[in-house]
Protein 1
Amino acid sequence: MLFSNALVRTPGHSVINGIDDYADLGRPDYERALAQHQAYVDLLSDRGVAVTVLDPLEAFPDSCFVEDPAVVAADFAVITNPARASRTPERGFIRPALEHFYSQDHIFEINAPGHLEGGGKISSPSHLPY
């Protein structure tokens, strides 16, 4: 198995107001988002992954995407500095969760003027070398 732990955050109702300039799919359906999230948690659990589920953060519509404010590796974690100002405060909420898995000296931060986001998409995969 590649990993044995997963950190997820339940979508808050505010997810319907999240950033939508990547996929342009329109406003999410909250009940469907919850069902999809639970299916994801169940799938991970069924495969033996220990899932830590964080509470929703209503003040931050996109906070269920925990891969944006933190990028993790086996031995360390990096708290990112998202380019969107609306995502920046999530940094303070992800750190306590990371501290359950990593010691303080193995949690690093990207600070201004630097930016790093763990999520996103490749807009044109044709430039990849494979």
Protein 2
Amino acid sequence: MADEVLQPAPTGASVAKSQFAGDSARSLRSAARNEARLAALLATIAGFVDAYGIIAYGVFVSFMSGNTTQTGYQAAEGEFGPASASALAILFFFVGAFAGALFVGPLGRRARRLVFAFVAATLAAIIGLTQLRLLSTGFGIAIVSFAMGVFNSALSRFGAQAVSLTFVTGTLSRVGSHLALAVRRAPLTDSQGPWDTHLRRALILARVWAGFIAGAIFAGAATPRFGAWVLSAPVLILAALAAFDRRDGAAR
């Protein structure tokens, strides 16, 4: 009779280790999913505020590629007034992005509530000053662009995927790249698990882009009718996030 090969029974330590690995993977996936949802929501707010800026001030307050193009061609045509407005938005967005990276970046999620609260307060101030007729166009451009520069630091990635809340050109580029790599069945070098694929990331980033354009549509429809009061919507959402956003990145 052939000798039987006995397989060692799993020990308690190995079972515990396997369970821990499974729980860790599920936690990682859940955190990435929550961050992706938050990214889509924040992109919707960015698109909303950007569309408001176009309608109210004639410049983008979060999309600096558009302002750079406008500054260039308007200056070339001798329209220095409009060009200076676009340049003003670029300047203050840059300063806001610098401030966000300098003061918010090192603190990570611990400071994210402060970013939400700051942007909500800024937009609320815009509503009040506009209603009181105390807000000049230049000042409005400056403070909203600064706030959106800071806002961009609230979320820079979900899981291992980099994301920009205001730079939709980069988002669309990443969607195309991930789709192409998915078609080629190329491996995802920084994959966080079997669930993390090129196709999944392309779909998530597509939702971020869709959120941005949805926000722009909502603002475009509402701003001509309600004016600065439309900013009440992002103010309330950001105030809720400031109050309830958890340190692990998931909103309650």
Protein 3
Amino acid sequence: MEQYLSLYKIFYTVANTGNISQAAKQLYNSQPAISKSISRLEENLNVKLFSRNSRGVSLTAEGRILYEHVKTAFEALETGEEQIRRMHALDMGNLHIGASNTLCKFVLLPYLKHFIEQYPHIKILISCLSSNQTLELLESGKIDVGLIARPNTLRSLDFYPLDTIQDIFVASPAYLSNLGLSSDEMHCGRMLFEKATLMLLDKKNMTRQYIDDYLTSNHLQTNHTIETTSMELLIEFAKIGLGVGCVIKKFVEDELASGTLVEIPLDIPIHRREIGFAYVKKRHIETAVQHFIDFYKTSKEN
């Protein structure tokens, strides 16, 4: 069918004008060439598509059937072309972002607020995912941009750092008091983790994997653990005295300032990590995605 697409375009134009001469003018072609193309299409379909009359040509019964299908096809193509023109004229497009609930709330939303003000016509879809899930969807092309903690290997990704984050252990003053540890014992991870209930993200989470590496490399054992998929829940659990939670310091600044939570300073600190936007390296980047990349790079520079 692909080889006859130009013939269908000629057929469509002749049917709309009802005149081979007019169709030839619209298509910047000669009348003999238009007539020859119609004859070729008729031979291919083994039907008569037009009948001649004093005013020009008119569709036969078979021609009318074909015309309805061809009309639908060309109108769909015209609609697609118009949407593309509008997209470029109005900076429209689609942008699919992946981020964890926590990074979405504390980091992504401020960027989105100003980005939407600048590009109100871009349609934005956000998927709340763990960093590992975000990486998988990025590499499979199912999302455009991911807000993640920097992975050990970037592979096919471009990574643009925004900030660094510090993982810390926190608990309520009442919970720490109930543990009955001395000040020296409290700062010693070995004593603290053996006695306390440690609250962590689930094992599929990149943050959890980072903390597990920290515990293993420093030979720190845990006896009682609670797992959850949400850092917001870890923070709330710590506030009500359920255990010692591993959280990102930036996201509990208010609780630390008010004394609702207390940071537990350890003898062996946890190294800071980078967070930023990642996207797959490729030659052609959709307009909406490029706008977002340019926006966050410019925002950080300013």
